[in-house]
Amino acid sequence: MRLIMCSCPKEVADTIANAVVESRLAALVNAVSGVKTTSLRKEAPCVQEETVLFIQTPIEHLEPLFELLASLHPSKAPAIIALPITSGNYEYLKWAEETLVSQTRTNNSSEI
């Protein structure tokens, strides 16, 4: 499993979170609003309020997830970072993986 962090404008956060879950690339997305981001733009600091999305996903979903996030994000170079999950609540991590596996199987069965 990997933890993906993606900062985005609050106006698109719900759209992105819903698309990630509906496409079965993650079992859930946590959205933390009101994050103050300071970055360097045109040689001067730029401060803006954003929402950070925390997405837990299996490693095999990384590339399609990155593609989806980039396609829905308004920035040309969205901040998308993947971190390994080295430990955590076993029952939660098991639920997250099993939820995606069972939903994927169900969706594939209905296509036959």
From TrEMBL:
<protein>
    <submittedName>
        <fullName>Divalent-cation tolerance protein CutA</fullName>
    </submittedName>
</protein>
<dbReference type="InterPro" id="IPR004323">
    <property type="entry name" value="Ion_tolerance_CutA"/>
</dbReference>
<comment type="similarity">
    <text>Belongs to the CutA family.</text>
</comment>
<dbReference type="InterPro" id="IPR015867">
    <property type="entry name" value="N-reg_PII/ATP_PRibTrfase_C"/>
</dbReference>
<dbReference type="GO" id="GO:0010038">
    <property type="term" value="P:response to metal ion"/>
</dbReference>
<dbReference type="InterPro" id="IPR011322">
    <property type="entry name" value="N-reg_PII-like_a/b"/>
</dbReference>
<dbReference type="Pfam" id="PF03091">
    <property type="entry name" value="CutA1"/>
</dbReference>
<dbReference type="GO" id="GO:0005507">
    <property type="term" value="F:copper ion binding"/>
</dbReference>
